[in-house]
Amino acid sequence: MSQAFDFDAVVVGAGAVGLACGYALSQRGLTVAVLESEGHIGQGVSSRNSEVIHGGLYYPTGSLKARFCVQGRRLLYAFLDKHHVDYKKCGKLVVATKAGEIAQLEAIYDQALANEVEGMEHLTGAQARALEPGLNAHTALLSPESGVFASHDYMLALQGEIEAAGGAVVVDTPFEGATPRAGGGFTVRIGGAEPASLSSRLLVTAPGLSAQAVAATIEGFPADQIPAAHYGKGVYFRLAAKAPFQRLIYPPPIHGALGTHYRNDLGGQAVFGPDLEYVPAPDYSVDPAKAAAFADYIRKFWPDVPADRLVPDYAGIRPKIHGPDEPQPDFQLRGADSHGLEGLMALFGIESPGLTSSLAIGEDVARRLTA
To answer: HEC profile for the chain?
Structure first.
């Protein structure tokens, strides 16, 4: 190395994906600093999701989402076992509630096979109801590799690995911008109680909802390489009654999302969501009046849903890079081949299945930056 740096790599954003990038880099012997503007890790997109481990059924053949979801899921279960993080490999039923949805299920099954998803099964309606009494199913697909997990404990384990390798995860430390250095690397400006600057050979930006704003503060980052930001809000309702099903229950996906689904969380409570609404700015309110629409949707696969027992729970925002009438794009991992800045990897549009994919994303980022 021709010059000394404070760190080999700086990662912006201590959500699941940023921490996974820091972990992968630290496992290669690099000194890593992960910067987080909030007071705790995982307070953004990573704190407001379904905590589902996705099988990898839906994503187009050869896409990053397909590859990273399957690879990431396999890595994730091994990581959770090694670090004693709680999870439940409960399986998922994708349900056709009427004959008109069978073609969608067949397309999902074919895509799952193309994506090398293990253990997929066709079920008749009777077979699905034998597994989950009370379910309305004309036919169904079973994905046994799907599950739910304690995502915050997972992020704490990633933080622990980074710190054990000599790195640092620093909260209350907003990233203010970066400037490429003449001999390579970056000068990184940080704010907070004690504003400062530090030098790093490599820079990774994985700040979720603020990905576009962060990229715009990096000197020399081409504006035409920053995709438009869209906010996809999804709300969740909890069932104030006994959980009706043990497995994840998913209807066929809707445009731009997987649709309002059911999960039995690690605490044994039933949660439904998220829906999808494009909003002009992040907004985490949950309108109790939405319960009626949720009940109507849920009734398709659970006719006995007690609408009066659906209570508002929480909302999340997906960092989308497409509008409501546009095709859903792939994950965007933009390196020097797109923006021209050596040593920089900028991540955009890391929504679902980003949590499941996080370890695979981290591995790919680290591989590309250290090749």
So the answer is: CCCCCCEEEEEECCCHHHHHHHHHHHHCCCCEEEECCCCCCCCCHHHCCCCEECCCCCCCCCCHHHHHHHHHHHHHHHHHHHCCCCEECCCEEEEECCHHHHHHHHHHHHHHHHCCCCCCEEEEHHHHHHHCCCCCCCEEEEECCCEEECHHHHHHHHHHHHHHCCCEEECCCCEEEEEECCCCCEEEEECCCCCEEEEEEEEEECCHHHHHHHHHCECCCCHHHCCCCEEEEEEEEEECCCCCCCCEEECCCECCECCCEEEECCCCCEEEECCCEEECCCCCCCCHHHHHHHHHHHCCCCCCCCHHHEEEEEEEEEEECCCCCCCCCCCEEECHHHHCCCCEEEEECCCCCHHHHHHHHHHHHHHHHHC
pLDDT (tens digit per residue) in 85-100: 999 999 999 999 999 9
Indicate yes or no: pTM above 0.90: yes
Q: Give tens-digit pLDDT for 290-300.
A: 999 999 999 99
Task: Indicate if the pLDDT at residue 82 is higher than 70.
Answer: yes
**Tens digit of each residue's pLDDT (9 = 90 or more) over 198-257:** 999 999 999 999 999 999 999 999 999 999 999 999 999 999 999 999 999 999 887 666
